[in-house]
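Propose amino acids for all 331 sites.
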């Protein structure tokens, strides 16, 4: 399996490390290695048809600030110069235009390549088009890590719960908001909890994407389109963030044995992100940066999952699960 990685930041490097650590597994299960034949960051790329050393790529990126010696301006030209089977697209999320991630995914699918991405922008904006393109060109297109990081929600719904009629999914899909709300549970005001989240590296210096609920809304869109077969986009979500939650509201909830959590909800008719009252001890009443989801289906009833919604190796774990599914399908 020859892999081209687009984006070599936290997730791209985490994936390269996972590839290095799983070569014995790949050899044993498939009789061959996974070769990274190209890696691109925003300005440079490295390529080798025989496969690049994943750990050396990470080391060069961290010491020299670039993944390779070659510079480029047009990612599509780089992609066309490489023989690869699978694009792993992990460039920055751009929910306004889809960004370079959308360009790269469309190009790979048009060329008949399989694609794995955790980039929410293209998925939240152009899901039906991308799925259609993948079907037309008989490509695999997988995106487990785009919702909930290491928490295996999409493949759980598509594979393990394949025969179920899923009625709704409710979940905590933004760890930063959950961290802030958990801190407010222990008495911190919103501004202080936000500052602490920024100091811990959980929230960006411009935290709007998290606290206004936009990041969770992207995930709700991805679930609506992929699990419920809806045809919706970011602007269809009814979004309320957590920036106007007061300490008084949190205290009042606590007095009634409740917590306030930012909940994304998807069903055939609902598409919403908003702060909700959750009973203490409920699977969605968790604290800290974790993500959680409750899937309600007709036969199984409620199923609750929780896991790390972000992180270098955690997100790479989701990409690995998609990679194995693609390699199994090719066996
Ligand atoms: N971090 C997580 O835990 C996590 C979890 C789930 C999903 N995601 C998603 O995964 C993606 C990557 O996240 P990250 O945390 O790895 O971000 P990051 O650390 O900021 O890395 C982004 C990488 O993309 C590169 N890049 C920027 N513009 C590019 C372009 N035009 N073509 C190719 N590469 C380009 C950057 O290049 P330079 O190095 O040159 O700047 C950098 O290597 C995002 O879409 C994010 O939403 C992340």
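Proposal:
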């Amino acid at each position: 399996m020859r892999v081209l990685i687009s984006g070599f930041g936290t997730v791209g490097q985490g994936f390269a490390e996972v590839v290095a650590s799983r070569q014995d597994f790949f050899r044993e299960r498939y009789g061959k290695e996974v070769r990274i034949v190209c890696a691109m960051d925003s300005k440079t790329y490295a390529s080798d048809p025989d496969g690049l050393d994943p750990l050396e790529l990470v080391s060069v990126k961290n010491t020299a600030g670039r993944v390779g010696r070659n510079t480029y301006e047009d990612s599509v030209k780089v992609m066309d110069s490489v023989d690869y089977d699978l694009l792993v697209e992990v460039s920055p999320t751009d929910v306004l235009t889809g960004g370079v991630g959308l360009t790269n995914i469309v190009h790979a699918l048009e060329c008949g390549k399989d694609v794995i991405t955790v980039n929410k922008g293209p998925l939240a904006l152009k899901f039906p088009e991308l799925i259609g393109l993948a079907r037309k060109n008989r490509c695999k297109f997988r995106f487990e890590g785009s919702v909930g990081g290491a928490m295996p929600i999409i493949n759980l719904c598509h594979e393990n719960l394949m025969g179920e009629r899923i009625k709704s999914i409710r979940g905590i899909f933004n760890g930063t908001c959950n961290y802030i709300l958990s801190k407010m549970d222990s008495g911190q005001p919103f501004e202080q909890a936000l500052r602490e989240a920024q100091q811990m590296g959980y929230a960006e210096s411009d935290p709007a994407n998290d606290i206004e609920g936009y990041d969770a809304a992207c995930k709700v869109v991805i679930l609506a389109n992929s699990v419920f077969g809806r045809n919706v986009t970011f602007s269809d979500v009814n979004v309320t963030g957590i920036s106007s939650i007061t300490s008084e509201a949190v205290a009042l909830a606590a007095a009634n044995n409740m917590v306030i959590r930012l909940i994304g909800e998807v069903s055939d008719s609902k598409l919403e992100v908003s702060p909700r009252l959750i009973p203490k001890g409920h699977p969605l009443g968790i604290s800290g940066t974790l993500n959680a989801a409750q899937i309600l289906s007709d036969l199984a009833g409620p199923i609750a999952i929780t896991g790390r919604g972000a992180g270098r190796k955690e997100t790479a774990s989701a990409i690995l699960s998609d990679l194995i599914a693609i390699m199994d399908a090719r066996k």
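The first strand starts at residue 2 and ends at 6. The chain has two domains: 2-150+312-330, 157-308.
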